[in-house]
Design a protein that fits this description.
The complex is a heterotrimer of chains A (255), B (147) and C (402).
Chain A: H1 2-34, E1 50-55, H2 64-73, E2 84-92, E3 97-100, E4 118-127, H3 135-139, E5 145-147, E6 153-155, H4 165-169, E7 176-177, E8 184-185, H5 191-194, H6 201-204, E9 211-215, H7 222-229, E10 232-233, E11 245-248
Parallel strand pairs in A: 1-11
Antiparallel strand pairs in A: 1-9, 2-3, 2-4, 5-6, 7-8, 10-11
Chain B: H1 3-26, H2 40-46, H3 55-59, H4 63-69, H5 79-83, H6 87-91, H7 104-111
Chain C: H1 6-13, E1 16-17, H2 30-53, H3 64-85, H4 94-97, H5 104-138, H6 141-150, H7 159-192, H8 204-231, H9 238-269, H10 274-282, H11 286-310, H12 315-341, H13 343-346, E2 353-354, H14 367-387
Antiparallel strand pairs in C: 1-2
Helix pairs in contact in C: 2-3, 2-7, 2-8, 2-12, 2-14, 3-5, 3-8, 3-14, 5-6, 5-7, 7-8, 8-9, 8-12, 9-11, 11-12
Classes of the chains: A alpha+beta (255), B mainly alpha (147), C mainly alpha (402).
Chain lengths: 255, 147, 402
C-alpha cells in the first residue's frame, strides 16, 4: 500500500515537473515566433510621441530645410547623401509626371517645363517618416537602429555593422551609408535639439512654417490640431509602416 | 551511450558555454535598458552639438534689427534662415562673421516665378525681367522688404 | 573633386527618370549576389547527398561523399562575402551576441551555424570517423595529427561503434533535409520579406530560392564528380551521372515552373509597381534575365537534359553534353541571383526612374575579389579531398538502418 502511494506521489510529482518543464519550454520557444509579429503589433507610444506635419500648400521649394539639415547634422555635402530633401512634381497637360530634385533642392528650383504645358506643379519636402512600425527597425539584425521612447527612429553609429539591410527596407529612401563612418545615417528629427527644447533645424529655418513637429499624444499640440483640421495623408499607406509624417494636400502621384 | 556521442556532447556543451560566456561578456552594458538597443545611445545622440542658435539669441545683441524685421512680411523667418548658423558667431562675434547674402540668385530661391509655388504662399517676380541689372537689396530692405 | 565620389558623380549622369537622392549607389553589390549563390550551392549539394542516404537512391552512391565535401567547402566560405561587404566588418559578432529577432538577417546567423556545425560537420564526421582512426595509424606528419584531432581522440573501430556512426549519421541526415530547406528558404526570406521592394516582396521568393538552390547544387556536384574522375583518370560511372542528370532535369522544370508562376502572377495582377518592373525587365535586365537566366540557364538545359531522357548517345558525347549543361545551369543560377539582388536595386522605390550599376574590376566589391570568393571553395574542396579521399574509405556500404 505504502509503496503504491509513494509511486503515486512520485508519478504526480513527475507529472507536475513534466508539465512545468513543458510550459517553460513552450513559453521560452514563443518569443522567436513573436518576432514575426513586428508590424502586426500596435504601436506603443506612451508619454510624448513625436509626429511631423508638412503643409504642401505652404512649401515654396526654397530648399532651406535640406540645406540647414546638412549644416546642423554634418551630412556630407556631396549630392548623394540626404537626411532631408525637396522634390518638385510637375504634372503636364498630357498626363506625364516629371519629378526633379537637383542636389536635393538645396540650390533652389527652376521650372523646366514651360508654363503652358503644366497642369499642376508643387513641391514635396521629404524626410524620415519616423514610422511607428518602422521597416528599418524591424530588419536591423543587431539593434543598432531603434525607436526611441519618444517615437524617434535613431541610429547607434557605434554599434551599426553597416549591412545596409535597413537601407533596402526603407520604402522612402531616407537612409544612406555615411561615406567616412561606414555606418548607416538618417534623420534624427534633430533629437539633440528636441532634447534641449529646440525645434528641428529644418523646421526652425523654414521661412513659411510649412513643417512642424510635436507630440501626437497631446491633443492640444500644433501637430495634433493640424492632423485634425486638414485632409492629411501619409506616403505609401498600403505598406502599413505606421508613418508619423502627415502631409496636407498630398497628391496621389507622390511616392 | 556510444563514445562518439559522449565526446560530441562534451564538445557541444563546451562550445555552447563558450558562446554563452561570450554573449554575457560582449553584450554592451546598457543594452536592453529600454528596448533592443544600447540605452546609452539615446544620450549619445542627444549630446550632438547644435549649430542653429535661434532668433531669440540674436535678439540679445541685434535687438533693433530683430524688432524692425518683426513688423514686416519677413517677420516669421528666423535670422539664421538667411544668415546661416550662429554657433561660432556667438562664441566669437568679432572674427566669426555670418553671411549677408545679397545676390539676386539668393532671393530667387523663394521669389522667382515657378508654377510649383502657390501664389498665395509667396510674392513672386520674373527675375529675368525685373530690374535685371541690380541687386535686390538696392531697392528692398531684406528685413522690411515691403519698402 | 574627391576621387572617392567619382563613380557616384558618373552614376548621377546616368540616372534615368527620377530616383530618391540617396538611391544613386547600390547598397548591395556583387558580394551579396555571391552570398545566395554560394549558400544555394551548399543546400543543393546537401540535398543531393541526402537523396542517396535517406531516399535510398543507390545509383547516386559514388557522389555521396563528394556532395557532402562540396557542400562543406562552400559552406565555410558562404559568410565571407557577407562579412566583407559590411561597412564595419569587425563588428560582425554583434549579429550573434545581440541578435534582433525580428530581422531575418539576425536569424540567419543561427540557421547558418546550426547547418554548418550540427548538420554538415556531424554528418561528415560520422561518415569519416572510423576511417580517420585507421588513417591516423598509417599516415605520418601533419596528416596524422589532423586525423587524431578530428577524431576527437576516439580510437574505437569495432563493428559496434561503426554501427553507431551509421545510425547517428542517418539521424543527422534526416534532420539535415529540413535544415537545408530552412537554410536556403531563409535566404529567400531575407529578400522576400522586404515589403518596400516589389521586385523582392513575394511569398514565392523562399520557394524559388530553394529550388534554384537545388538546381545549382546538383549541377555543381555533377561537374565536380566528372572533374574528379577526369583528374584521377577513372572511368565515370555513367549510371550515376545519368541519374544526377535526371534529377537535375526534373528540378529545373519545377524551378522554371515556380519562377514563371511568379512572373505570370506579377503581370496578371499588374499592381502599382508593374510599369517600372516591366520597364526593368525589358530594359536594364533584358540580357541578364531573358538571355542568361532564362535562355542559357533554363531553356537550353531543359532541352539538352530532356533529350537525354529518351535518346542516349555514346558515353563521351553524353559526358560532353552534361559538362556543358552543368556550366550553363551554374551561369544561369548565378544570373538569377544577380537579377534578384542587382535588379531589385536598379529601379527607384519612387517607381519613377532607374539608377545604373557598373561592376568595378578591383576593390573589395570588384570582379576580381568576387572571383576569388568563388575560387577559394574549390581550393578548400581540393584540400578536403586530399585529407579525406573518398576513394580510400574502407567502409563501402552504409549499414541499413531500420
Amino acid at each position: 500500500m505504502k509503496v503504491a502511494k509513494e509511486n503515486q506521489s512520485r508519478r504526480s510529482f513527475l507529472k507536475n515537473a513534466g508539465m512545468s518543464v513543458g510550459a517553460l519550454l513552450v513559453t521560452s520557444a514563443l518569443p522567436p515566433f513573436n518576432a514575426i509579429l513586428f508590424a502586426a503589433n500596435k504601436p506603443k507610444g506612451k508619454g510624448i510621441w513625436y509626429g511631423i506635419a508638412i503643409d504642401i500648400e505652404k512649401c515654396i521649394g526654397c530648399g532651406n530645410c535640406a540645406k540647414t539639415c546638412k549644416t546642423e547634422n554634418d551630412v556630407p555635402p556631396e549630392p548623394f547623401f540626404f537626411r532631408s530633401w525637396v522634390e518638385q512634381y510637375t504634372i503636364k497637360n498630357d498626363g506625364t509626371i516629371k519629378v526633379e530634385s537637383p542636389n536635393g533642392g538645396i540650390d533652389g528650383f527652376t521650372q523646366s517645363v514651360p508654363d503652358g504645358e503644366i497642369e499642376k506643379s508643387f513641391f514635396v519636402p521629404k524626410m524620415c517618416n519616423h514610422c511607428a512600425k518602422s521597416p528599418c527597425v524591424q530588419v536591423c539584425p543587431v539593434g543598432a537602429t531603434f525607436e526611441s521612447p519618444e517615437g524617434v527612429v535613431l541610429v547607434d553609429d557605434t554599434y551599426c555593422i553597416g549591412c545596409r539591410y535597413c537601407v533596402q527596407a526603407c520604402p522612402y529612401g531616407c537612409r544612406y551609408i555615411h561615406p567616412t563612418k561606414n555606418v548607416v545615417d538618417k534623420c534624427t528629427l534633430c533629437y539633440h535639439r528636441l532634447k534641449k527644447g529646440l525645434n528641428p533645424a529644418c523646421m526652425e529655418n523654414c521661412p513659411t512654417k510649412a513643417r512642424i513637429s510635436g507630440d501626437l499624444n497631446d491633443p492640444e499640440s500644433e501637430v495634433s490640431k493640424f492632423i485634425k483640421t486638414k485632409n492629411v495623408y501619409v506616403l505609401k499607406p498600403h505598406l502599413n509602416t505606421g508613418s508619423k509624417l502627415y502631409y496636407n494636400a498630398l497628391n496621389q502621384e507622390v511616392r | 551511450m556510444p563514445i562518439q556521442l559522449k565526446r560530441l556532447l562534451i564538445l557541444g556543451v563546451v562550445l555552447v558555454s563558450i558562446f554563452l560566456i561570450l554573449k554575457y561578456l560582449m553584450t554592451p552594458e546598457s543594452f536592453g535598458q529600454y528596448g533592443h538597443y544600447r540605452g546609452k545611445a539615446l544620450d549619445e545622440v542627444a549630446a550632438y552639438p547644435t549649430k542653429y542658435v535661434g532668433s531669440e539669441t540674436c535678439y540679445d545683441c541685434h535687438d533693433s534689427i530683430v524688432l524692425a524685421k518683426s513688423e514686416g512680411p519677413h517677420s516669421g523667418i528666423g535670422c539664421e534662415s538667411c544668415h546661416g548658423p550662429g554657433f561660432k558667431h556667438i562664441e566669437d562675434p568679432e572674427t566669426e562673421k555670418l553671411d549677408k547674402p545679397n545676390t539676386r540668385a539668393f532671393c530667387a530661391h523663394c521669389h522667382a516665378f515657378n508654377k510649383a509655388r502657390s501664389e498665395k504662399a509667396i510674392t513672386q517676380q520674373n527675375i529675368l525681367e525685373h530690374n535685371p541689372e541690380d541687386n535686390c537689396t538696392e531697392c528692398h530692405n531684406p528685413h522690411q522688404p515691403q519698402q | 573633386m574627391n576621387p572617392q565620389f567619382e563613380h557616384l558623380y558618373q552614376a548621377l549622369t546616368k540616372v534615368d527618370g527620377y530616383i530618391y537622392p540617396n538611391e544613386i549607389e547600390l547598397s548591395w553589390s556583387i558580394l551579396i549576389v555571391l552570398y545566395p549563390f554560394i549558400t544555394g550551392l551548399v543546400a543543393g549539394a546537401f540535398i543531393l547527398a541526402s537523396l542517396e542516404r535517406v531516399f535510398n537512391v543507390k545509383s547516386l552512391k559514388p557522389t555521396y561523399v563528394i556532395a557532402l565535401l562540396t557542400a562543406f567547402a562552400f559552406m565555410l566560405v558562404a559568410t565571407m562575402p557577407l562579412i566583407f561587404h559590411l561597412g564595419q566588418p569587425l563588428r560582425f559578432w554583434e549579429i550573434m551576441i545581440t541578435p534582433h529577432l525580428t530581422s531575418a538577417m539576425a536569424i540567419f546567423g543561427f540557421v547558418y551555424l546550426w547547418y554548418l556545425m550540427v548538420v554538415l560537420l556531424l554528418e561528415i564526421w560520422f561518415d569519416y570517423r572510423a576511417d580517420m582512426v585507421v588513417w591516423s595509424k598509417e599516415a605520418t606528419g601533419l596528416k596524422k595529427w589532423l586525423y587524431k584531432i578530428f577524431s576527437l581522440g576516439i580510437s574505437d573501430v569495432s563493428p559496434e561503434s561503426r554501427r553507431w556512426d551509421d545510425k547517428l549519421g542517418y539521424i543527422v541526415t534526416v534532420i539535415g533535409i529540413p535544415s537545408a530547406f530552412l537554410l536556403h528558404g531563409y535566404v529567400g526570406f531575407i529578400f522576400g520579406s522586404i515589403k518596400a521592394n516589389p521586385w523582392w516582396s513575394t511569398v514565392m521568393m523562399p520557394v524559388i530560392f530553394l529550388f534554384s538552390a537545388m538546381v545549382s547544387g546538383i549541377a555543381l556536384v555533377m561537374l565536380v564528380f566528372m572533374i574528379v574522375n577526369y583528374i584521377r583518370k577513372q572511368k565515370i560511372d555513367m549510371l550515376c551521372l545519368d541519374t544526377i542528370a535526371k534529377y537535375l532535369f526534373y528540378i529545373i522544370i519545377i524551378d522554371f515552373t515556380l519562377e514563371s508562376l511568379d512572373q505570370i502572377h506579377r503581370f496578371y495582377e499588374a499592381e502599382e509597381s508593374f510599369e517600372i518592373i516591366s520597364l526593368l525587365m525589358s530594359g536594364k535586365l533584358f540580357v541578364t534575365l531573358l538571355i542568361f537566366q532564362v535562355l542559357i540557364g533554363m531553356i537550353i538545359p531543359v532541352i539538352s537534359l530532356g533529350t537525354m531522357q529518351f535518346y542516349k548517345p555514346k558515353e563521351k558525347i553524353r559526358q560532353g553534353i552534361y559538362l556543358v549543361t552543368g556550366i550553363l545551369v551554374l551561369v544561369g543560377i548565378f544570373f538569377m541571383r544577380w537579377n534578384v539582388v542587382i535588379g531589385g536595386q536598379l529601379f527607384s522605390k519612387s517607381f519613377y526612374g532607374f539608377t545604373s550599376f557598373k561592376l568595378a574590376l578591383i576593390g573589395p566589391e570588384g570582379f576580381l575579389m568576387a572571383s576569388i570568393w568563388l575560387i577559394i571553395p574549390f581550393l578548400i574542396l581540393a584540400f578536403l579531398l586530399w585529407l579525406f579521399p573518398p576513394w580510400k574509405k574502407t567502409q563501402e556500404e552504409h549499414v541499413s538502418v531500420e
